[in-house]
Amino acid sequence: MSTQLNLQATFYSREETQGHAPATGIFGSTLHEALSGQGHLQCAIDPNVIALKTNFTLILWDGSQVQAAALDTGTAIQGNKIDIFVDTNSEAINLGVKSVTAVLDNGVGNDPDSRTYTVQPGDFLSAIAQKFYGDDSEQSWRKIYDANKAVIGSDPNQLQVGMILTIP
Fold first, then answer.
1. Which residues pair with 103 in a beta bridge?
2. What is the three-class DSSP state of 128?
3. pLDDT tens figures, 131-157
4. What is the reported pTM?
5. Closest CA to 126 of 139, 111, 113
6. So where are the chain's domains?
7. How far apart are alpha carbons 10 and 40 in whole angstroms?
8. What DSSP element (H or E) covers 6?
9. Which CATH number does 116-166 carry?
10. 155 CB contacts (<8 Å, ≥6 apart)?
């Protein structure tokens, strides 16, 4: 089961953020990169609406879909607003304001046949690998970690309850 959130999207660029790391300290991909399959789209969100470090599907104004990650916050990003990372200031200005939909997994997918998993209290990557692959070896849990570095961060032991992980 999933939740769909209708959001008002604005845009920010690499040029604007030079020298400033996202709130999570983790950099994601720009819209162009994510649409080309190069990682999760970096988004700034209200953490009261979408938890930081959450992976989700973003349905864009033109109907295309991209995998996104809630990696940043912003003082102007409150309620059902989202700021989408793009390459340049001119691209951000040209895109203006758009309506998008975030599709969030509610954790119902926490069974071995699912493609996502919502981290529960006491979870470790090895236990999640055991659940999905029947194997808790480093090779198995690293497969999950490598697919979710944008969400988990640089330390695979820093899982947070509520993170939504993609299971490759």
1. 4, 57
2. helix
3. 877 888 899 899 999 888 877 888 999
4. 0.61
5. 139
6. 2-105, 116-166
7. 17
8. strand 2-13
9. 3.10.350
10. none
